[in-house]
Amino acid sequence: MVTPNAHLPDHDGGISDGTITVQQANVIIIRLLQLSLEPLTLAEYLDEVIYVLTATPWLPIRNMGAIFLWHEQDQHLKLAAHVNLTPEHLALCHTIRLGQCHCGQAALSRQMIVTDGLNAQHVIPQQALGEHRDCCIPLGTEEQIWGVLNLYPLPNHHFNEQEFTFLRAISSTLTSAIIRFDQELRLKEAASKAEEDARQIAKQNEELLAADRLRAAVEHISRHDLKTPLTGIISFADMLLERQDLDDDLRKGLEIILNSGYRSLHMINLSLYLFQMEQGTYQLNAEMIDLIPVINNIFRELAQQINKMKIIVNITLNGRPVEKRDRFLFLGEELLAYSMMANLIKNAVEASQAGMAITVALSSTLSHACIQINNAQPVAPQIKETFFQKFITHGKKYGTGLGTFSAKLIAETLKGSITMSSSQTAGTTITILLPLPQRPRQE
User: Fold this and answer.
1) Which domain does 94 fall in, by range?
2) Do 309 and 177 sit in the same domain of this protein?
3) Domain check: are 42 and 183 in the same one?
4) What are the tens digits of pLDDT across the range 10-65?
5) CATH at residue 51
6) Edge to edge, what strands does the sheet with 312-317 contain?
7) What CATH number should be reported for the domain holding residue 422?
8) Does the predicted TM-score (pTM) go above 0.85?
9) pLDDT tens digits, residue range 214-244?
10) What angle do CA 65, 69, 72 make, to 5 degrees?
11) DSSP string, 136-183
């Protein structure tokens, strides 16, 4: 610390017969450390510090001073604590830019600045502040400036090297305390944010659970209310078809009603199955399914839209066009396969422009059936990464964003997988792998 030195001027500008001793220097450092451990805010701590420094009778400084803190966002020093500054002084020095006045120069250079008075570098005019000497001590590390301690040396006193060492010790102590206050504040803010985030997540989870319960109840009611009249329509159409006196047109119309009724009934059941798949409670009843008739039925149902758009449809098996006798078997459930393929083929048709081609390519390995659906239109970039997520749609006026989501859900329920690739040159290809039964090994 500081060793005994020559007589120093007292606070009235006279000569004091006291000297700064090591013990006196230690008293100030220890007091600043004690203050930093008390339950004070940073503002309260800085007020105490500037009071201790300016009120100590054996320090060669006037009973006035200030502490500025650096505000990174605003890029300026801001007055944080002071003693005995005039209203005019406070107004002029409320904020200081880097390089402005002596305090701004100390912050910019990271060097202590001691002046004999206001010079040309001090942009605030002397008449506004009155004649005074400055001792501007930067508070900071090599990496960052945290503030400036501004003290006012007594007239005609010149600090020696030991006193500079003492002032640097004050700077180091004060900087450490400011950094600790800043870290504690950041920790409190982070903890508060974490608590608020936890509350928001808990609230959102509760809202999601409530919405899920409501959705399940509405779906249950809807299924019950829809299935009851559908069952009556199906039964009545089936009963009428048993009559022998029906002409061909009437019989064909009743068959359409019957098939549509069954299809609607299956779709209602499927909505229940999809809900069970999301919950992981669906019980798969897998059997060997021929996918070719399923695909043909889907294209027949979309024939009006396909013909209107003059879309070219290709269905291939192992690289050649499908023939009437061909079969393409996989292990699954027909209703799930129909729903999955219908959603994907319908999406391909709706995404295609007039005259484009849609290709459904079927192939097999020893363990998997491979289905690839390709159309020339690439997927919009904004949904490429979220293509199979729920409620993701683009460019469809009445799109629900459930088609590809349910297709993925079904593919995974069938113990398979589904992927998508898309580019400007190759268009969009959906690839589905579905399991085949394991063949017994040959002895």
Assistant:
1) 22-189
2) no
3) yes
4) 444 333 333 567 777 788 888 888 888 888 899 999 999 999 999 888 888 888 89
5) 3.30.450.40
6) 320-321, 312-317, 357-364, 368-375, 427-435, 417-423
7) 3.30.565.10
8) no
9) 667 766 665 566 677 777 888 888 888 888 8
10) 160
11) EEEEE-SS-EEEEEEEEEPTT----HHHHHHHHHHHHHHHHHHHHHHH
